[in-house]
Design goal:
Layout: H1 8-16, H2 21-40, H3 47-59, H4 68-76, H5 80-93, H6 105-112, H7 117-130, H8 133-147, H9 152-168, H10 189-205, H11 207-215, H12 219-232, E1 240-241, E2 244-245, H13 247-261, H14 265-281, H15 287-302, H16 307-320, H17 326-339, H18 344-348, H19 351-356, H20 363-376, H21 382-395, H22 398-415, H23 419-433, H24 441-451, H25 456-466, H26 474-493, H27 506-518, H28 524-540, H29 545-554, H30 561-575, H31 578-584, H32 627-635, E3 675-677, H33 693-696, E4 704-705, E5 711-716, E6 719-728, E7 734-743, E8 750-758, E9 763-766, E10 782-789, E11 798-806, E12 809-817
Antiparallel strand pairs: 1-2, 3-8, 4-6, 5-6, 6-7, 7-10, 8-11, 9-10, 11-12
Keywords: Coated pit, Cytoplasm, Cytoplasmic vesicle, Golgi apparatus, Membrane, Protein transport, Transport
Pfam families: Adaptin_N, Alpha_adaptinC2
Family: Belongs to the adaptor complexes large subunit family.
Length: 826
């Protein structure tokens, strides 16, 4: 006869004495061998003890699958202690993937009808934990009977088991409907809690059940009564947590009210008063009270609540921002970010508190505060908010600078009160965080300066002073070099009226540009800007032309091929083509943001001008290749579309674009071809001016219509695209959509391109995105603005195409967006 195995407590003590992992493994293997021997000999006396030890080893991460059948034997035993360990083992070691679990069905059925409530409770717990769909179908009847019993111990366990049954077999939901009628009349808190969980599951899974509970069962008044009793009842030691009566039940009821009140006026009206009571009577000094208040805020924001109640909810979030707990502050910022589009004015009242959060030491809070601050920017507060955000840009960590700079650029483009302010703001960003700005910042600022004719002297003087002795911010140096090349004569003449002019000689200007050329901090692109600026000054300056010739000739033998080529071409201008030099280097005309519009494409260039040296080359006279435009025709089903733009046949076969998916599909509201939007990589083709061009160079709207709910246009593979909307009161045909792309996966999404297409009755314009990288773990977003002209006030429909690289693979997906809120197009 084998000696009695050691007890579980002794095994735990022995394992804890192990000094190394290898020693622990040796102890476990030795004990497992002894347990196996005992199982082989069918030792019924110590089976319970052995399975308990096996479960402990399983919890430590060691294999314990050989004990599965022993668990079933324990479940079949008549002793409660055996059953308890057997059911615990079944919940830990068995799941739907093992066929062994089906052998339990008969035992569970017998135990559900057992005379002892504790045995019945074990069976309910096991079925609710790991019951498969087959087991749930077979045993749902027994669960439903126990749900109607008068025993509160069994009813609460049966309610949770019913939740599992409904998740596994949704069609069995109606079986539990009669049993739910009296559940909320129960006094026992455990039964009430589990009943609310069951009702929540049924309402979430079935719209029919939701309608039934709203209308027939009058569920909202019952829940309101229970919640009112919880708030008004005195001290209850059994359910009290930090002075608040049963906060877990309160939170569950608030979540169920949120589901019942969503998009339902009557239900929302019935719960307005109790939500106001909870919001005003709950103690906020402890975290328990804050948890209830947070659920109350979410419920108020999700139902059709009164405006005063929504303001109360936002004020609660405002108080959260003053809390010392970082988690509460983060939760408040995240919630305000979700509500800022619908309750913009109420959130604006807490602007100063939100801006203060930019100084928080916690980076997560700082990021949320930055995103919310940009969401609060409008035409009225642009100056104050930009002052705070520029101060933040000065002092923030490097990982924030790129997103902050992009946000400032977008806000300045939308709401700039004047061109001078716009130019000053962008120059300040370039001075502070020039190496972090997106690629199109330089050409966009150059275009802005070019179009502001009255600001040329002021701008060139500011830029000249900004780069004196500091070439660390390369984008700023590039813009300065371009402007000095264009407007160097204004700098030397001292014609600045906006501020006191400085006295600069031609030689001092050339000294600066030559310093840029030889500086170790200058990139190849920056040197190209500087060399071209020097060349341009040969027509602006009169006394230093020989010096300019000398500088240009020196770089004719540069080891940088790009610089060498430019210098050789400029030397040729001085010698062979000197008669053409002044014409080729004359001042740039005012630049327009070029868009094209037709059935095949809409291209937004955002003023991305070529570097100045290329201006010396005459424009090509032959036809431009149109293969990419033809690809777009194929993308939209080009066989049936007559393009507005005349295209020149190329050697590319007509079927070359046939592999591309049809972007528009069947979107065609009027039977006419559709207008698509494409990224700015497509070549520009001359077309009639776009109707929205006038909007792109000025603030979008100072008289915006707020209250348009945002939508989630796309959510798949960790990528989420959200649309928020603005409309002008003076031009209601134009809708401005701001997209926000976020990434919840663990790796960044790179080379992100968003494309959109709408029916031809609309006109659509895509502005430049804030970045091409969607950061991982939702640590940042890409924003992009879409303008849609809808003169006929038709329902808005859109097909979007997303391309990006993720985990080393090129990803591409199409989606159709049809759930635009009526306020965005009516």
């Amino acid at each position: 006869m084998m000696p009695a195995p050691i007890r579980l407590r002794e095994l735990i003590r022995t394992i804890r004495t192990a000094r190394t992992q290898a020693e622990e493994r040796e102890m476990i293997q030795k004990e497992c061998a002894a347990i196996r021997s005992s199982f082989r000999e069918e030792d019924n006396t110590y089976r319970c003890r052995n399975v308990a030890k096996l479960l402990y080893m399983h919890m430590l991460g060691y294999p314990a699958h050989f004990g599965q059948l022993e668990c079933l034997k324990l479940i079949a035993s008549q002793k409660f202690t055996d059953k308890r360990i057997g059911y615990l083992g079944a919940m830990l070691l068995l799941d739907e993937r093992q066929d062994v679990h089906l052998l339990m069905t008969n035992c569970i059925k017998n135990d559900l009808n057992h005379s002892t409530q504790f045995v019945q409770g074990l069976a309910l717990c096991t079925l609710g934990c790991m019951g498969s769909s087959e087991m749930c179908r077979d045993l749902a009847g027994e669960v439903e009977k126990l749900l109607k019993t008068s025993n509160s111990y069994l009813r609460k366990k049966a309610a949770l088991c019913a939740v599992h049954v409904i998740r596994k077999v949704p069609e069995l939901m109606e079986m539990f409907l009669p049993a739910t009628k009296n559940l909320l009349n129960e006094k026992n808190h455990g039964v009430l809690h589990t009943s609310v969980v069951l009702l929540t599951e049924m309402c979430e899974r079935s719209p029919d059940m939701l309608a039934h509970f709203r209308k027939n069962e009058k569920l909202v008044p019952q829940l309101v009564r229970i919640l009112k009793n919880l708030i008004m009842s005195g001290y209850s030691p059994e359910h009290d947590v930090s002075g608040i009566s049963d906060p877990f039940l309160q939170v569950r009821i608030l979540r169920l009210l949120r589901i019942l009140g969503r998009n339902d006026d009557d239900s929302s009206e019935a719960m307005n008063d109790i939500l106001a009571q909870v919001a005003t009577n709950t103690e906020t000094s402890k975290n328990v009270g804050n948890a209830i208040l947070y659920e109350t805020v979410l419920t108020i924001m999700d139902i059709k609540s009164e405006s005063g109640l929504r303001v109360l909810a936002i004020n609660i979030l405002g108080r959260f921002l003053l809390n010392n707990d970082k988690n509460i502050r983060y939760v408040a910022l995240t919630s305000l970010l979700k509500t800022v589009q619908t309750d913009h004015n109420a959130v604006q009242r807490h602007r100063s508190t939100i801006v203060d959060c930019l100084k928080d030491l916690d980076v997560s809070i700082k990021r949320r505060a930055m995103e919310l601050s940009f969401a609060l920017v409008n035409g009225n507060n642009i100056r104050g908010m930009m002052k705070e955000l520029l101060y933040f840009l000065d002092s923030c960590e490097p990982e924030f600078k790129a997103d902050c700079a992009s946000g400032i650029f977008l806000a300045a483009e939308k709401y700039a009160p004047s061109k001078r302010w716009h130019i000053d703001t962008i120059m300040r960003v370039l001075t502070t965080a020039g190496s972090y700005v997106r690629d199109d910042a330089v050409p966009n600022l150059i275009q802005l300066i070019t179009n502001s004719v009255e600001m040329h002297a002021y701008t060139v003087q500011r830029l000249y002073k900004a780069i004196l002795g500091d070439y660390s911010q390369q984008p700023l140096v590039q813009v300065a070099a371009w402007c000095i090349g264009e407007y160097g004569d204004l700098l030397v003449s001292g014609q600045c009226e906006e501020e006191e002019p400085i006295q600069v000689t031609e030689d001092e200007v050339l000294d600066i540009l030559e310093s840029v050329l030889i500086s170790n901090m200058s990139t190849s692109v920056t040197r190209g800007y500087a060399l071209t600026a020097i060349m341009k000054l040969s027509t602006r300056f009169t006394c230093t032309v020989n010096r300019i010739k000398k500088v240009v000739s020196i770089y004719g033998s540069s080891i940088d091929v790009e610089l060498q080529q430019r210098a050789v071409e400029y030397n040729a201008l001085f010698k062979k083509y000197d008669h053409m030099r002044s014409a080729l280097l004359e001042r740039m005309p005012v630049m327009e943001k070029v868009t094209t519009n037709g059935p095949t494409e809409i291209v937004q260039t955002n003023g991305e001008t070529e570097p100045a040296p290329l201006e010396t080359k005459p424009p090509p006279t032959g036809p431009q290749p149109t293969s990419q435009a033809n690809d777009l025709l194929d993308l939209l089903g080009g066989n049936d579309i007559t393009p507005v733009i005349p295209t020149v046949p190329t050697s590319k076969p007509a079927s070359a674009g046939g592999e591309l998916l049809d972007l528009l599909g069947d979107i065609n509201l009027t039977g006419s071809p559709a207008a698509a939007a494409t990224p700015s990589s497509v070549p520009q083709i001359s077309q009639p001016p776009f109707l929205l061009d006038g909007l792109s160079s000025q603030p979008l709207f100072n008289d915006i219509t707020t209250g348009i709910p945002s939508i989630t246009a796309y959510s798949k593979n960790g990528l989420k695209i959200e649309f928020t909307f603005e409309r002008s009161n003076t031009n209601p045909s134009v809708t401005v959509i701001t997209i926000q792309a976020s990434n919840s996966t663990e790796l960044d999404m790179t080379d992100f391109v968003f494309q959109a297409a709408v029916p031809k009755t609309f006109q659509l314009q895509l502005l430049s995105p804030s970045s091409s990288i969607v950061p991982a773990f939702n640590t940042g977003t890409i924003t992009q603005v879409i303008k849609v002209l809808n003169p006929q006030k038709q329902q808005l429909r859109m097909r979007i195409k997303l391309t990006y690289n993720h985990k080393g693979s090129a990803m591409q997906d199409l989606a159709e967006v049809n759930n635009f809120p009526p306020q965005s197009w009516q």
